[in-house]
Write a structure and sequence with these properties.
The structure is a homodimer. By secondary structure, chain A is of the alpha+beta class. The first copy, chain A, has a single domain, classed as BirA Bifunctional Protein, domain 2, CATH 3.30.930. Helix content of chain A is 36%, strand content 20%. In chain A, the strands form two sheets. An eight-stranded mixed β-sheet of chain A has the order 1-5-6-11-10-9-8-7, with helices on both faces. In chain A, strands 2-4-3 form a three-stranded antiparallel β-sheet, with no helix packed on it. At the A-B interface, helix 1, strand 1, strand 2, helix 2 and strand 5 of A face helix 1, strand 1, strand 2, helix 2 and strand 5 of B.
């Protein structure tokens, strides 16, 4: 590595460390409790796109590596009110995704969830966190941003909102990319159709088929930042949604057992730390955000 | 769960969140950079006791889940000076260990490493961190400690040091347990013999066969807190130590390639967050420190 590139990488790593710091501090100020991440479990997020499984034999029983902590977050809210975790996720993405500049097969999400919250509560929280993170980086890393050639603008809250239906109508299938490329500030996409998302995304009781969820899109072409929303939490509804998705309830046995007993209503989101770092540092590829990038298909330490 | 038990668990989780907060804050004050944890890699700590492997096929290549980040820490110091990570470790311990009250097959270590540091530097740092953590918990969680029935004393630095040789002579094979049970403050064990430890533990150049390493032992019977020390960092010495251990250099191929190029001298340690929580909260079993305990042999979400 050239010494110039090492200097750049150092700057990126310092900024990423500061991003984690700000996120943790702001959440603690709001009485969030940091819980441990979960790496192995018999249950994990099935996700909404094809992904290779990571089966591990532990003491003769079958476990997977966490693809997201969604179920554990809901279960944690049986004990606590507001939680977060810096949660490593492993997702063995298809090889086509190795060149997107946005996919690693191992990454970290700040994953958070609030009991009894509505989508609007977590959207507001997200905007506050986002602005705090950018303020801190702009204040403390002037030299590093200059070396990276990054002019970072502080967005104004509330961020613009576009309904999925309107985005699709106006921009077609590639709406996410087009919205990202044509905007200078982050944009929310809300109200995804039920058929497009995971079974745990909460359906709007007043508008069947429409979800109480959202994605945040980075400006300047950096693409998706996060997904989140309200959750399904009643046993019957969860089971129905699993079946509607063509998935097997037996795959989520422990989760369903707990849902039958009691899961509280909640809302939350998960935001990828590497993608956030990429956006903040203005980097071309996500591999540049971490010391040990995991590039789909490549042998990486 | 009885509401009394839920109250206790809530207290423990809040204290654990505060422990993470204090550790992170203190390290950042000392210019440490938080790096991402590593979950999958072709290279991981072989450890010094028998453990079932966690082989995963990623894109046709063989990976394991991190047993400790030791190699990645040393490699990270090629770019940064002082680093830490809250690093989830998976160790498929033998079933005999399920009843020790001290073993989970998944847990989190605060893992840190300092370039060009000596053992004494990281011992001092550890004492400072330990005292800061206890001060914060005593100040902010009076009610929770009362509910847990825990009277927590603030230890005085520097902690007592006992050489391995002397500990073994005085107490025999079970020295760790005996020292833990008979002391009211933490105790360092230093200078382990080379044959007892992993190949990466640095040998004292002035005393062949003796390591520049240490363990910290909790008082009151809570057992081992952490392991650490100076590291082997020169290619020839690392290779020699691997062979001496009866291990295969090919198992550490990527690590050896980087060591041949350049690894800096360093010292560091890893301290288990769940064990620290258990000690601070005065809990009987490590399962009580976390929402999703992974008990060897049991199917755990």
């Amino acid at each position: 590595m050239k010494s110039e590139d090492i200097e750049k990488l150092k700057g990126v790593l310092k900024i990423q460390s500061d991003i984690r710091k700000t996120l943790g501090e702001e959440l603690r100020k709001k009485d969030f409790i940091e819980i441990s991440s979960v790496i192995l479990s018999p249950i994990t997020d099935p996700l909404n796109h094809p992904i290779a499984p990571t089966n591990i034999n532990c003491y003769g029983k079958k476990y997977s590596i966490t693809q997201s902590m969604i179920f554990h977050k809901q279960i944690a809210l049986r004990t606590l009110e507001k939680i977060f975790a810096f949660s490593p996720n492993v997702r063995l993405e298809s090889l086509e995704r190795k060149n997107t500049g946005r996919h690693l097969f191992e990454f970290t999400q700040l994953d958070l969830e609030i009991k009894d919250a509505k989508r609007e509560d977590v959207m507001k929280l997200c905007e506050e966190l986002f602005i705090s993170v950018i303020k801190s980086v702009k204040k403390n890393f002037k030299k590093e941003l200059r070396i990276l050639g990054r002019e970072l603008t502080l967005p104004k809250a509330p961020f613009k909102q576009i309904k999925y239906k309107d985005a699709y109508q106006k921009y077609g299938e590639e709406f996410e990319q087009i919205i990202s490329k044509t905007h200078k500030e982050p944009v929310w996409i809300v109200d995804f159709p039920l058929t497009n998302r995971e079974f745990y995304d909460g359906e709007d009781p007043k508008r069947p088929g429409v979800l109480r969820d959202m994605d945040l899109i980075y400006p300047e072409g950096y693409g998706e930042a996060l997904s989140g929303g309200e959750r399904e939490y009643k046993y019957d509804r969860i089971k129905q949604r699993i079946l509607k998705k063509g998935q097997k309830p037996s795959q989520f046995k422990e989760y369903l057992t707990l849902a039958k007993d009691d899961l509280p209503p909640s809302a939350g989101f998960g935001i990828g730390i590497e993608r956030l770092t990429r956006y903040i540092c203005g980097l071309k590829r996500i591999e540049e955000t971490t010391l040990f990038p995991k590039i789909p298909g490549k042998r990486c330490i």
